[in-house]
Amino acid sequence: MNNTKVLEGSVLNVFLSFSIPTIMGMLAVTSAGIVDGIFVGNYVGAEALASISLCAPIFSLLFGLPILFSVGGEVFCGKFIGEGNIEKAQTTFTNIIIIIALISISLTAVSLFYVEEIADFLGADQSIKPMVVTYLQIIISMSPVLSCYALTYFIRVDGQPNLSFISLLLVALSNTILDYIFIVELDWGVKGAALGTSLSYFVLPILLIPHFIKGNGNLKFKFKSFDWKIFKDISYNGSSEFFSELSGGFLFYLINLQMLKYYGTEGVAAYAIVGYLMYFMIMLCYGMSDALKSIVSINFGAKLMNRVKHFLKISVVTAVTLGGILALMTTIYVDQFIDLFLENDSPSTKALTTQFILSASPIVVILGINILLSAFFTSLHHPKPSLIISLLRTLIFPVSLIFILTHFMGGEGVINAVVLSEVLTLCISVYLYWKYLRNV
Fold first, then answer.
1. Among 10, 139, 183, 354, whose CB has the most other CB atoms within 10 angstroms?
2. Could you give the CA distance from residue 425 to residue 251 in angstroms, rounded to a whole number?
3. What pTM was computed for the model?
4. What is the pLDDT of residues 97-134, one digit of tens each?
5. How far apart, in whole angstroms, are the C-alpha atoms of residue 182 and residue 99?
6. CB-CB contact of 199 with 143 (8 Å)
7. Beta strand residue intervals within 110-191, DSSP E
8. CA geometry: angle at 63 spanning 62 and 68, to 5°?
């Protein structure tokens, strides 16, 4: 897709041409995680599902630093492309990929020495610690491959959203096939789930790197020197997504500890299924927000602010509509949704999961607005309000409310804290939009 269409084409058509493949790609990645849960929950058991859930914060750490540079870098590259400064976009892209590779390799090398300690920190008791350690060893060792997810950001901003979607779809399909082989046929349990996830991500470098080597678009590998000043700006601009990823991991860690405290491993397994519901909607909105950042950054570079605002309006309406449909369908078919993961498990686990899902489902209607407004601020190089929104919804509000509400309500306070956090964040998000962008 060329820049002329992004800058001059119908706003709705451009939004759909970017958002549909990006959303589908995100949903493909989401389905891969959900498929892990389905296979593990049904063929290994609730304790194995709980062990994978306990490892979720580590994914936030492994993906957090690559996201910091890829999100901020995508916006800068889009701005440079919109301005017509292709050489600057190429050198910036190359620098970012080198930094991400170095960070991932270093993080892997250090983390592998402390897998046992990480498992203890995550709250794994002796009944599930061996499974947690096994899962972590494989996932951490494959971190450099998982970090290739960063390439999908630059493929999109380079006008190839369909290629991004195809690559992520192949990751999901590969993961499903490998899960079936490793978990069902070979009976490898959580080891099979970790291998299935890790090996499926080899699709990304194999499929996407040739695009940048051949120079099929505006971006290609072109190294001159490191521009440390722009790294500072990129890091600042991508900080909201970075801290959102890290604080989201910490929040999941805190919730798991509370589940263990009030309900045991049964509570961790139950909340893991609620997590899949929210993860589905969050990734759907991240798909829209990633598409939004790509097209808004290019139009912002070309100073087409009316188009920029129209892109935001369309994305918000879409997010609220899809969230409403998902909340309604989940409420109506809650038993069928739970049976995907725990068909043969205890009635008490299912009852607890039902309670959690019905309490949390309304959140999916509004969380998309917060995610999209945060991304919109990033696209316009306003990192401060973007960071405020991210920290409020993933750290400040939920952590403080969990401690307050569980004191009065016990375990139920955890779910209520998560829901109330999104509502309060929405109020702040609307205020920040009014403050910063009402005259744009």
1. 183
2. 15
3. 0.71
4. 888 888 889 989 988 999 999 999 888 888 889 999 99
5. 33
6. no
7. none
8. 120
